[in-house]
Amino acid sequence: MNASPGKTSTKSILTLGVLIGATAMLTACNGGRDQSNIELMQDMMDQRALKSQKFDDRRNKPSAMTPPANTVPRGYTPYAYAGDPIKAEAELKNPNAGADAAQLAKVLVRGHDRFDIYCSPCHGLTGKGDGTVAQYMPLKPPPLISDKVKAFKDGRIFHIITDGQGVMNNYATQIHSESDRWAIVNYVRKLQQGN
Ligand code: HEC
Prior knowledge:
By secondary structure, the protein is mainly α. The chain folds into 2 domains: 5-47, no CATH class; 85-192, Cytochrome c-like domain (Cytochrome Bc1 Complex, Chain D, domain 2, Orthogonal Bundle). The chain contains 8 helices and 2 strands. Heme C is lined by residues 118-119, 121-123, 139, 141-142, 144, 146, 148-149, 157, 160-161, 165-168, 171, 184, 188.
């Protein structure tokens, strides 16, 4: 043993002191909450990329830009039946139509789950139109177990979820996946059968 325990701890206290001092000095370089600390690679920090929701001084416009005409975002497929419920009802086919019992059971579990989240607040857990927020709405959500909705083809219900109807907004942005929307359609059918 060449160093006594006492000496070692004095040394570590000194090291700690130096570390705290260095951190304090470095932190002092921060010019404020909106400023970055030390800039090691200025190009990365001071880039000219626009910040969302900010103003673009160069163009004197908000930074959000309208997409160029005739373009779509990557991975986005425009809905072919926008504004056309009749054509949608005639042409859209439910991909779950040929599902066997086991597949359908899975679809219904998913549909039940999504329905309770996205539809039940207005249309009610059993589709009677008595959801929690329905009482506060001047224009009541209609029941989904009515003869009218029973007579709709699957494509029409899918269309209403995807494109909306009247005062009901569309749910395509919340329920991204088409298969989830179809699963909801199947679950609405189950509610209509009263089980
Ligand atoms: C914010 C409340 C609200 C939510 C949430 C909602 N709807 Fe609606 N829904 C309405 C209202 C209100 C109408 C009547 C719209 C109209 O025709 O002007 C309607 C109409 C409908 C209709 C047509 C019924 C008819 O008799 O014409 C269907 C089908 C439907 N909704 C299904 C759904 C499904 C499925 C979901 C979940 C994905 C859903 N809705 C979510 C409020 C809602």
